[in-house]
Amino acid sequence: MQKLLSKTRQAIKDFNMIEENDKIAVGLSGGKDSLALLHILKSYQRFSPEKFELIAITLNPGGVDNSPLHKLCKDLSIPYHEIQTDIKEIVFDIRKEKNPCSLCANLRRGALNDTAKKLGCNKVALGHHRDDAIETFLMSILYEGRVSCFSPRTHMDRQDLTIIRPMIYVEEYMTKKAAKDYNYPIIENPCPVDGKTNRQNIKELVSKLNDDMPGSKKNLFGALNNADNFFIWDKEKIK
Ligand SMILES: Nc1ncnc2c1ncn2[C@@H]1O[C@H](COP(=O)(O)OP(=O)(O)OP(=O)(O)O)[C@@H](O)[C@H]1O
């Protein structure tokens, strides 16, 4: 937990993620990452120089028993809100999406942000970590032909809401370990395509790359953090 906390603290500081009197909604899916995020932010709250409020929100995609999350939040004294949605039905039964991940993510994002706003929050914290960032970066290059990745901190002007990703320096093995060590009440992922997605392919590719070329994962993350050395062919500048 000490390592998780210090990496999170560093990211919060580097990207100015938490400010005095923030009311932060943690998007709690019931997966290991958002459970680790809730745990870390609750611990961080004790010694943070800025006072901030914490709540947790779960969007139920339909038919999931989230009672262990209600109990966890009660034990941690964190106000908890579970919102029933029909995301699963929309994505799989009504729209019958061939590539369901982006529609599902959009619907979740919209519902989470709307709920956070209604509950008086000015920030939403998501459980993305360092491996998610590396995978998203590579996915955008390999599947979409563009260089991009989500940001550690983004302000949504329309809703006047800031999205933060405090675990951006945390490696996935750390959240896996925390889930074991602290016996998090993991809710089984209800997604029917879980484990068969483009993201899973990229995860395996990154792992193989790093075995074949030790250090490549670190360099991919380094590239994301190296805006001063970003050289892309810009026809207007070159000609
Ligand atoms: N159903 C949900 N309710 C609330 N927040 C969610 C939900 N699904 C995802 N999120 C938020 O969005 C983040 C990224 O979602 P994603 O589906 O990529 O999760 P993940 O990488 O599998 O993480 P986790 O282990 O937390 O599920 C999560 O860490 C969480 O903060």
Tags for this model:
239 residues; alpha/beta; Rossmann fold; six-stranded mixed sheet; globular; binds adenosine-5'-triphosphate
Query: Regarding quaternary structure, how should these chains be classified?
Result: single chain
How many beta-strand runs? 6
Question: Rounded to an integer, what's the Rg over CA atoms?
Answer: 18 Å
Strand content: 5-15%
Widest sheet: strand order?
Answer: 3-2-1-4-6-5
CATH architecture classification: 3-Layer(aba) Sandwich
Instruction: Please give the CATH class.
Output: Alpha Beta
Q: What spatial form do the alpha-carbon principal axes imply?
A: globular
Structural class, judged by helices and strands? alpha/beta
The largest pleated sheet is described as: 6 strands, mixed
InterPro entries: Rossmann-like_a/b/a_fold, TilS/TtcA_N, tRNA_thiolation_TtcA_Ctu1
Keywords: Transferase
Pfam families: ATP_bind_3
Organism: Terrisporobacter mayombei
Descriptive report:
This protein has 239 residues and is α/β, with parallel strands linked by helices. The chain has a single domain, classed as 3-Layer(aba) Sandwich (Rossmann fold), CATH 3.40.50. Helices cover 49% and strands 13% of the residues. It has ten helices and six strands. It has helices spanning 2-14, 32-47, 67-75, 87-94, 100-118, 130-144, 172-181, 198-212, 216-224, 235-238; strands at residues 22-27, 52-60, 80-84, 123-125, 153-156, 161-164. A six-stranded mixed beta sheet has the order 3-2-1-4-6-5, sandwiched between helices. Helix 2 packs across helix 7, helix 4 runs antiparallel to helix 5 (100-118) and helix 6 (130-144) crosses helix 8. The longest helix is centred in the middle third of the chain and has 19 residues, at 100-118. It is globular, with a radius of gyration of 18 Å. 28% of the residues are buried. The model has no long low-confidence stretch (mean pLDDT 93). Residues 27-29, 31-34, 57-59, 108, 112, 126-128, 132 line the site of adenosine-5'-triphosphate (ATP). InterPro entries: Rossmann-like_a/b/a_fold, TilS/TtcA_N, tRNA_thiolation_TtcA_Ctu1. Residues 23-199 form the tRNA(Ile)-lysidine/2-thiocytidine synthase N-terminal domain. Keywords: Transferase. This is tRNA-cytidine(32) 2-sulfurtransferase. Its EC number is 2.8.1.-.
